[in-house]
Q: What sequence folds into this?
């Protein structure tokens, strides 16, 4: 009799799954939607992808299943091709950096103008203002549907040679940078020697003394244990690295409105969670409280600056005067790239900031 009851229960579960699969098939949904994620699952960016997938399943009652592929596995590491592959429908969706989409969406470089955006309040005005909408409009024009913002964070400088306080301190430093011409121009203007390489090669370069430093957000520096390679860190907020959750436009437009609404809600909630992870301990208690009160999540490292100092790093926070010196040194790059990005987007960003 016990065997019979278990069998009936198993049959009932099977019937439910078959019914859900039939509903999804009848609605034209795929069994699974592939999501490109550049980083691994333990970085905040990756945690945001996992949260998005969980929320999509929950909010669509299992009709839409998103599977994150971490470490650019779908692109064999070629992360700069993410937006093209999503636009073509080869990949369904992504949570991606504005840095990675900028070769296709040059308007996204508004966040990478050196020393233009320097705090979270200003960043939010631009992300959720006219300039942010201009970036989204440019994505839609390329057959990509943007769903919501998340964040990798303001990018900070670390190195093994000197505590950087002035542009003169940068002279001759070999700095690993991402493969974006704007970043290369910026470091050359500061007298450094920018080197574009993937992260695995960069770590070997640090160990062998081939590369002196790198630039990344705090939320990346701690998981990769940057203190193993570098003694010095300069918190300079020289550029910021927002993330965008986006979907193939044709596929998105074929979803019924209730599914679109559910996935949009998932993207915005996951984006809020991931943004709070990236800002935790850097904006007072604000993001720590969002994580605790809204997501029942407690940060393992609630004070990232103190944590890195506890690992033996020397950390310098730029003063306003010091920051202005860096801004002046990179002004030619700033002016050049306004033209590349589009003066109209830049003017929208300035208007957003002024509000």
A:
């Amino acid at each position: 009799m016990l065997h019979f009851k278990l069998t009936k229960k198993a049959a009932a579960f099977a019937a439910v799954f078959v019914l859900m699969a039939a509903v999804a098939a009848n609605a034209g949904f795929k069994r699974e939607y592939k999501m490109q994620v550049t980083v691994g699952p333990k970085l905040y960016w990756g945690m945001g992808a996992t949260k998005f997938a969980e929320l999509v399943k929950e909010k669509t009652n299992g009709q839409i299943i998103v599977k994150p592929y971490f470490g650019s596995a779908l692109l064999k590491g070629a992360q700069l091709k993410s937006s093209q592959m999503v636009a073509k429908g080869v990949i369904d969706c992504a949570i991606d950096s504005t840095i990675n989409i900028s070769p296709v969406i040059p308007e996204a470089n508004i966040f990478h103008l050196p020393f233009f955006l320097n705090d979270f309040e200003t960043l939010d005005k631009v992300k959720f203002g006219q300039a942010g909408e201009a970036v989204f409009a440019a994505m839609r024009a390329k057959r990509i549907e943007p769903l919501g913002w998340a964040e990798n964070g303001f990018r900070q400088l670390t190195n093994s040679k000197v505590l950087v306080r002035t542009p003169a301190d940068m002279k001759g430093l070999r700095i690993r940078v991402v493969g974006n011409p704007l970043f290369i121009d910026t470091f050359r203007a500061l007298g450094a020697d920018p080197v574009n390489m993937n992260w695995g090669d960069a770590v070997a370069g640090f160990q062998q003394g081939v590369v002196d430093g790198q630039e990344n957000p705090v939320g990346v520096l701690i998981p990769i244990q940057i203190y193993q390679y570098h003694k010095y860190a300069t918190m300079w907020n020289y550029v910021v690295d927002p993330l965008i959750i986006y979907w193939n436009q044709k596929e998105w437009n074929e979803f019924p409105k209730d599914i679109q609404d559910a996935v949009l809600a998932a993207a915005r909630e996951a984006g809020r969670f991931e943004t709070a992870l990236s800002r935790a301990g850097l904006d007072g208690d604000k993001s720590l409280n969002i994580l605790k009160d809204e997501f029942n999540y407690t940060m393992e490292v609630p004070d990232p600056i103190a944590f890195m100092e506890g690992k033996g790093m020397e950390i310098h926070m730029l003063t306003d005067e010091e920051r202005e010196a860096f801004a002046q040194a990179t002004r030619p790059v700033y002016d050049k790239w306004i033209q590349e990005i589009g003066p109209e987007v830049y003017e929208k960003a300035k208007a957003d900031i002024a509000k």
User: Anything to note?
Assistant: The chain has one domain: 22-354. DSSP finds 16 helices and ten strands in the chain. The first strand starts at residue 33 and ends at 37. Residues 2-26 form the longest helix (25 residues).
